């Protein structure tokens, strides 16, 4: 079974968080995710993430922190997500691959239909916000 290693970005700006919806043509069609992508051989995960966010959303980010990696077994592949908490330098983005993307108040994120691997990541992120408040 293939095991892929994927960075993903929890991008914050003005108290909102960016979530993106996979296109109908992608794996896990129409599921919401934290945008990112596969780490290339020898690539630094943070650099991978900045590259992916630039390619997919034309957005520049700064990395502010990271959460523990989370491994999930889908029926046909295993993914380990490497989640980073990021700050967007601007609010505007341009979709290159996703069906849609939008800025959400953190409390609304749990209402989205997430890729299963993201659920523990979302919980861990929301827990960091609880600890801050
Ligand atoms: N980017 C991203 N992928 C996720 C998340 N959760 C999750 O299960 N995945 C899965 O991890 C894989 C990442 O693939 P991708 O298609 O986003 O990565 P990529 O841009 O490097 O792909 P490519 O090189 O095939 O174009 C997909 O199978 C996707 O369904 C997530 O939060 N973000």
UniProtKB/TrEMBL annotation:
It catalyses: 8-oxo-dGTP + H2O = 8-oxo-dGMP + diphosphate + H(+); 8-oxo-GTP + H2O = 8-oxo-GMP + diphosphate + H(+). Keywords: DNA damage, DNA repair, DNA replication, Hydrolase, Magnesium, Metal-binding, Mutator protein. GO terms for biological process: DNA repair; DNA replication. GO terms for molecular function: 8-oxo-7,8-dihydrodeoxyguanosine triphosphate pyrophosphatase activity; 8-oxo-7,8-dihydroguanosine triphosphate pyrophosphatase activity; 8-oxo-dGDP phosphatase activity; 8-oxo-GDP phosphatase activity; metal ion binding. Gene3D superfamilies: Nucleoside Triphosphate Pyrophosphohydrolase. Its cofactor is Mg(2+). Residues 1-126 form the Nudix hydrolase domain. Its EC number is 3.6.1.55. It comes from the Bacteria. CDD domains: NUDIX_MutT_NudA_like. It is an enzyme of class 3 (hydrolase). Signal peptide: none annotated. PROSITE patterns: NUDIX (PS51462). The keyword Zinc-finger does not apply. InterPro entries: MutT-like, Nudix_hydrolase, NUDIX_hydrolase-like_dom_sf, NUDIX_hydrolase_dom. Belongs to the Nudix hydrolase family. This is 8-oxo-dGTP diphosphatase.
């Amino acid at each position: 079974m293939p095991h892929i290693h994927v960075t993903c970005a929890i991008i914050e700006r003005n108290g909102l968080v960016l979530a993106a919806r996979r296109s109908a043509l992608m794996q896990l069609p129409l599921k919401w995710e934290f945008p990112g992508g596969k780490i290339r051989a020898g690539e630094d995960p943070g650099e991978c993430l900045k590259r992916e966010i630039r390619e997919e959303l034309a957005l520049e980010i700064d990395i502010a922190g990271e959460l523990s990696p989370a491994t999930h077994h889908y029926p046909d592949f295993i993914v380990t997500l490497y989640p980073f908490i990021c700050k967007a330098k601007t609010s505007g983005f341009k979709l290159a691959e996703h069906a849609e993307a939008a800025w959400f108040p953190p409390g609304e994120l749990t209402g989205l239909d997430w890729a299963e691997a993201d659920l523990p990541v979302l919980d861990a992120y929301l827990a960091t916000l609880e600890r801050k408040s």
